[in-house]
Amino acid sequence: MEEIDLRYSDIKIGHIYYADLRPVRDFEFGDNHLCIVLEKCSDSRSVIVVSLTSKSSGLGSNKEKILVSGLPKRLTQDKDGNPVDTYVVFDQVRTVVSNRLQYVYDGKNPDGTNKIIELPVDTEIFSYIVSKLAELKIKCLTKSEQTKYHKEKLFDLVLDDMLENIFSVIKGKNAVDDIRENVSKSHKLLCTINPNFLIDNHVILEKQEEVREVLEKISQKSLVP
Length: 225
Hints:
Blueprint: E1 16-20, E2 32-40, E3 46-53, E4 63-66, H1 73-76, E5 86-97, E6 101-102, E7 104-108, E8 114-117, H2 123-138, H3 143-170, H4 176-193, H5 205-217
Antiparallel strand pairs: 1-2, 1-6, 2-3, 3-5, 4-5, 7-8
Helix pairs in contact: 3-4, 3-5
């Protein structure tokens, strides 16, 4: 079968490809293996993948059945026509060079070339996989480190949401009344997480005045010390 190595720019996050995982040692997955791309690395050459398998052995916290639509018939049925399930293996995450990845094919085109198929993973399933992997990593931390991590991530998410609302007014996409309640709640939560919170510490100097003007219009004077 003709195989086309992928370029970094061709690869899509959340899609399934074959990955050449050789060479391997001991219990590592090897050969050409179906994988989901989790992340494209900043070096513009490599990607992070998690392996898939049709073997149900070892089901538990590190392996779960997932529903994948669009797989070729040869990957969803055995030689007797019985259904074959797909499992994601959470402890088989690897960083590989992009040219180790290959398209998945299903039959032939009229000109005789292999028919490439797109295999995006359902958005909710992909989100679950990424969340599960993050959860497994965080469990390696101590309880205090986990608490610190979650507080910092919550702070970042709430701050991003608050600034997004404020800049939607600056850009003319929303009116002040549209964001008043959300900004007030966000600020209260940010101050709970960090009692020393100041909006100016999180906005570039050139935008601070505009941000403060929006906050003043909201009439939440406590937001503008």
